Amino acid sequence: MGKENIKPARTCVYNVNDHIVWSVKYRRKVLDMEIESFLTELFQEIAEEKGFEVVMMEVDEKDHVHVFASAHPKVAPSYIVKMLKGISARKCFLKFPHLKPKLWGGHLWNSRFYIETIGSISEDRIRK
């Protein structure tokens, strides 16, 4: 992350980035290439509509998703996760009805997620 990633806003200049990972409920390996393609496009639409940016998205081992997201400091990381998981689950079940029988209970995603803040400044630089 360099200075090219710094974004101006009305009251601040920021570079806030998060690496977010979550899995399919019961770790079912259901995320094939067609679903991954659909999710990639859908995540971009959701991000644009909700006011954040999905810089990168990748499905790993057909059972979990990695998202690299960037947002204004006023946008909570938990809001980003809530929007991506909630909207994508509903739309995936509508577009791919064959997923429902594999995921009893009507949940596509595990309720938990992992999040890590990605920074561009080292600890030594902050101390200076």
Brief account:
The protein has 128 residues and is α+β, with helices and mostly antiparallel strands. It is 33% helix and 26% strand. It contains 3 helices and 6 strands.
Structure description:
With 128 residues, the chain is α+β, with helices and mostly antiparallel strands. It has one domain: Alpha-Beta Plaits, CATH 3.30.70.1290. It is 33% helix and 26% strand. It is built from three helices and six strands; from the N terminus they run E-E-E-H-E-E-H-E-H. The chain has helices at 33-50, 77-95, 123-127; strands at residues 7-8, 13-14, 17-23, 52-60, 64-71, 114-118. Strands 4-5-3-6 form a four-stranded antiparallel β-sheet, covered by helices on one side. The longest helix has 19 residues, at 77-95. The radius of gyration is 16 Å and the shape is elongated. Residues 13-128 form the Transposase IS200-like domain. This is IS200/IS605 family transposase. GO terms for molecular function: DNA binding; transposase activity. InterPro entries: Transposase_17, Transposase_17_sf. It comes from Paludifilum halophilum.
CATH fold node name? Alpha-Beta Plaits
Which strands sit side by side, in order, in the main sheet?
A: 4-5-3-6
Mind summarizing the main beta sheet? 4 strands, antiparallel
Q: What is the CATH class designation?
A: Alpha Beta
What is the rounded distance between the termini?
Answer: 19 Å
| Number of E strands | 6
